[in-house]
Amino acid sequence: MELKEALLKRRSVRKFTDEPVSDEMIEELLHAAMSGPSACNRRPWDFYAVTKEDVLEKLKGASKFTKFNAKLAIIVCGNLSRALPMQMAPYWIQDCSAATENILLRVTDLGLGAVWCGIHPQKRAEKKVAEFLGLKANQIPLNIIFIGHPAEEPEARDQYEEKCVHYVR
Question: For residue range 82-91, what is the model confidence (pLDDT) as tens digits?
Fold first, then answer.
C-alpha cells in the first residue's frame, strides 16, 4: 500500500470480528511504533500488547470512551525515567503520539482496523489502566489503541481544509 493511500484510508474502526490478531502482526505494529521519532532519541515509551480476554474486558471500563470489543489492545505509555529532564519532560507526549500514529498507519497497511482512545490526562482513567496493567509510578498511559480485524470499513477520505492552512512566505 502506498503511503498516501494509507493516510487517506486510515479511519477509526469501532467494530471488530472475533478473529484474533496474529503475533506476527502484533510484532509488526510494535516495530512501526518504535520507528517513530522522539526528542533527543530518548524513546520514552513502553508498549503493552494485551490479548488476554479478562484484561481486555477491564480496559473497556477504563473510561466512557473505551467500550470496544477488540481482540488486541496496545497501551502506549510514557516512561518518565527515559523522558527529557525537568521542563522538557512533557515531550514524552509528542514522542508517544508519533509512535501511536505509526501504529495506526501500519494497522491500515496490514488490513486491520483500530481506534485510538485517549487516556492521559484523565486522572481516573490513568489510575485504572495503571492498576489493570500493574504500571510503575514512572509510567503514564497515554492511550489505548483497540485493534482487530474490521467488521466495518469506513470510506477513505481526505479531510484537507484550505482555511486551516496559513502560508508565511
Answer: 999 999 999 9
45 close to 60: Cβ distance less than 8 angstroms? no
CB 16 within 8 A of CB 69: yes
Distance, in Å, from the CA atom of 62 to the CA atom of 42, rounded to the nearest integer, reads 28
Cα separation values, 128 from 58, 60, 120, 122, 124, Å: 9, 11, 11, 10, 6
Please name every residue paired with 82 in a beta bridge, in sequence order, or none if there are none: none
Which cell is 37 given?
521519532
CATH T-level fold of 13-153: NADH Oxidase (3.40.109)
The DSSP letter of residue 41 is G
Answer yes or no: are the C-beta atoms of 145 and 116 closer than 8 Å.
yes
Quick: pLDDT tens for 98-115.
999 999 999 999 999 999
